[in-house]
């Protein structure tokens, strides 16, 4: 591993973990739409750690989780791609006011719980891949 690469990987991992703690706090407070926005960031940072671990260069400045998976060289099925697409929508929705009201409407406790299950599944999968790299 190149000099400094491990530190950069650790940066992505540690900030992802810190963000995950924020997700938990937001869920407890009932701020579901922001919890899912931060949940997206958790996964984005793990993808970027994996990219760096596998390719040895800094990851591209993109936010779409499906594209990041592709850039990491991962072969993912349609089910996983669907989950990544749903989670990626929260990145867009939180950034653009036109989508924000719709996100507030759909982010019920039940819906958020379902999406959070997907976030946790992808999170565990990425953590395992990073450990193997």
| Alpha plus pi helix count | 6
Helix percentage range: over 70%
- Termini Cα gap: 10 Å
Q: How would you name the oligomeric state of the polypeptide chains in this document?
A: single chain
How many individual β-strands? 0
What do the pLDDT scores average to? 92
Beta strand %: under 5%
Category from helices, strands and their pairing: mainly alpha
Global geometry: globular
What does this structure look like?
The protein is an all-alpha fold. The protein has a single domain, classed as Four Helix Bundle (Hemerythrin (Met), subunit A) (Up-down Bundle). The protein is 81% helix and 0% strand. It contains six helices and no strands. Helix 2 (32-55) packs across helix 4 (78-95) and helix 4 packs across helix 5. The longest helix is centred in the N-terminal third of the chain and has 25 residues, at 5-29. The chain is globular.
What's this entry about, in short?
The chain has helices at 5-29, 32-55, 65-71, 78-95, 97-106, 109-132.
List keywords for this structure.
133 residues; mainly alpha; 81% helix; Four Helix Bundle (Hemerythrin (Met), subunit A); single chain; globular; 6 helices
């Amino acid at each position: 591993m190149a000099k400094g690469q491990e530190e950069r990987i650790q940066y992505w991992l540690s900030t992802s973990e810190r963000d995950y703690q924020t997700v938990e706090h937001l869920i407890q407070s009932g701020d579901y739409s922001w919890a899912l926005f931060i949940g997206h960031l958790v996964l984005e940072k793990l993808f970027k750690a994996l990219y760096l671990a596998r390719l040895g260069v800094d990851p591209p400045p993109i936010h779409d989780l499906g594209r990041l998976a592709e850039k990491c060289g991962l072969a993912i099925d349609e089910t996983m791609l669907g989950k990544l697409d749903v989670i990626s929508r929260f990145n867009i929705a939180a950034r653009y006011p036109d989508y924000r009201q719709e996100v507030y409407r759909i982010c019920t406790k039940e819906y958020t719980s379902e999406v959070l299950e997907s976030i946790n599944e992808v999170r565990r999968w990425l953590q395992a891949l990073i450990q193997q790299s």
